[in-house]
Amino acid sequence: MTTNFIREIIDKDLEANKNESRIHTRFPPEPNGYLHIGHAKAICISFGIAKDYKGLCNLRFDDTNPETENIEYVKSIQEDVKWLGFDWGNRLYFASDYFEKLYGYAVELINKEKAYVCDLNLEEIRKYRGTVKEPGKNSPYRNRTVDENLDLFSRMKKGEFENGSRVLRAKIDMASPNMLMRDPILYRIRKKSHYRTGDKWCIYPTYDFTHCLSDSIEGITHSLCTLEFDVHRPLYDRILNELGAHHPQQIEFARLNISHTILSKRKLLDLIKKKYVSGWDDPRMPTLGGLRRRGYTPESIRNFCDHIGVAKVDSIIDLVVLENSIREELNKKSQRVMAVLKPLKVVITNYPENKKEELDAINNPEDPSASTRKVPFSKELYIEEDDFREDPPKKFYRLSPGKEVRLRYAYFIKCEKVIKDKKTGKVTELHCTYDPATKGGNSPDGRKVKATLHWVSAQDAVSAEVRLYDTLFTKRDPEEAEEGKDFISNLNPNSLIVLQSCQLEPGLKNAKPGSRYQFERQGYFCVDSVDSSDKNLIFNRIVSLRDTWKKILLKK
Predict the structure, then answer these.
(1) Most CB atoms closer than 10 Å: which of 9, 188, 258, 392?
(2) Residue-number span of the structural domain to which 282 is assigned
(3) What's the pTM?
């Protein structure tokens, strides 16, 4: 069990028998969008700590805004949490289940003269709040009597007032250096049907009022949240103290920031609306749905979250750390196959007509139990365009006129003739000879070659579409943009390159959606779970084998 500052706090609490030595955490998403990799970190922390300390972790939806929340997000969030490998058992909760209790707590605060109904609109409230340097000023409605506040709040509940005409505010301190403590809003009028409670309510509690009380109602001991909630903690504590409720300890940790990535829900939605990506599950998106579709495994994401640890200060994690987590896993588990992404035909002129061989190929050198498979070899093959140069630069060791190379698992071949399109001059075909004595890729006379190429048999190959995904943004911090521009200006024009008529070895003909492979010398790929079909096989690149080879592919 890797220690961190949260675990150190919990260890001290257990030693002091705080909360009768119970450990009870929660993951409290708002059902107004899809989860992303940042949420994965929070999930792993809250569920992971509960598991390691033999405690409990709730899944609770803080659903207090009927204008942005719906059941679609609820279902997707549950699916994502389960996919990551966590189970909340019978502890699925909704803040909307507590609306009656929350209303009662609000009435209690009014009776204690700790809350009042305010008639200022939102713009006026902002003006009265003051600035960081200047204190705010009291609302003209701050000193209403308890009876008047109770009457107005009851009438708000009954729907007698229009949206925005009144709010319930906490009575704290309009001169507080913490702007959030300057009489924050606890309830607002929103005449909007709620996806769970329908039209029963037309007033809804704010997140800050709901969250702490939901934690208290559920008996949470440690309320773990990201660093931006640090300034909210005084309000969290004050509300619970004023009501004398069970008081969980709020602990903040640094949120996850990844290079070349945007994690703002609003900005991700902007990308979708403007059709820069295909949707929430676009494999370039940092959503868990996007990562899952791209081919990331839950194990790789959990390992990534464990590797980066838990910190108190925000920082940016290099995207390569996430990429390495899936590389390490798939290197051990994925079957190797040969796939030619940019095919160039090779005719072996001295290979017998109508002959076909079945050659042994290793499935995974990292896993001895993976055994071998048979791959067909014939007179006509496909190799990568990038593996041939008619006029090779210095230190180009792959195929060129008069040069000999090794074909993986097969033979040495030598380029004898180059066929070109008469109109364009483009190389369309190579005529080569092979050495039958080099079967298996070794020469009995001891001669050496400096390159080994992957290939597929032309008559047996399976045609497929391959989508090469790269970072969605060109800059490490996409928020850094030139004056007058925004993060959209940093989009990577090569974040998706679609290659048609790629040629794959025949064993991939019936590859199932979601199945993962290492295309030798290319990277790790996954059968697309949305667009791929029996008639149109589509592979997504999960991650390259190494940056240098990825750059070679993208140059073309």
Answers:
(1) 258
(2) 257-333
(3) 0.92
Enter the tokens of residue 417.
């003739």
Number of domains in the chain: 3
User: Alpha-carbon distance 86 to 302, whole Å?
Assistant: 11
Token pair 């925000």 is found at: 314
CATH code: domain of residue 267: 1.10.1160.10
CA–CA dist 46, 115 (Å, integer): 33
The whole-angstrom separation of Cα 129 and Cα 132 is: 9
- Boundary-marking domain end, from 312, 333, 354: 333
**Token digits for 491?**
């989009």
Instruction: Please tell me whether residue 100 adopts helix, strand or coil conformation.
Output: helix
The per-residue DSSP string of 136-193 comes to ----TTTT--HHHHHHHHHHHHHT-S-TTS-EEEE---TT-SSGGGSS-EEEEE----
Q: Which residues belong to the active site?
A: 30, 255, 265
Which residue in this structure is represented by tokens 């009265």? Answer: 128
CB 171 within 8 Å of CB 183: yes
Nearest to 427, CA basis, from 387, 381, 390: 390
Q: What is the pLDDT of residues 337-387, one digit of tens each?
A: 999 999 999 999 999 998 999 999 999 999 989 999 999 999 999 999 999
Q: How far apart are CA 338 and CA 285, in angstroms?
A: 28
Q: CA torsion 80→86→92→98, rounded to 10°? A: -80
Report pLDDT for 1.
62
- Spatial neighbors of 253 by CB under 8 A, at least 6 apart, are 5, 6, 45, 224, 225, 226, 227, 310, 311, 312
Question: What is the spatial distance between Cα 538 and Cα 468, in angstroms, rounded to a whole number?
Answer: 11
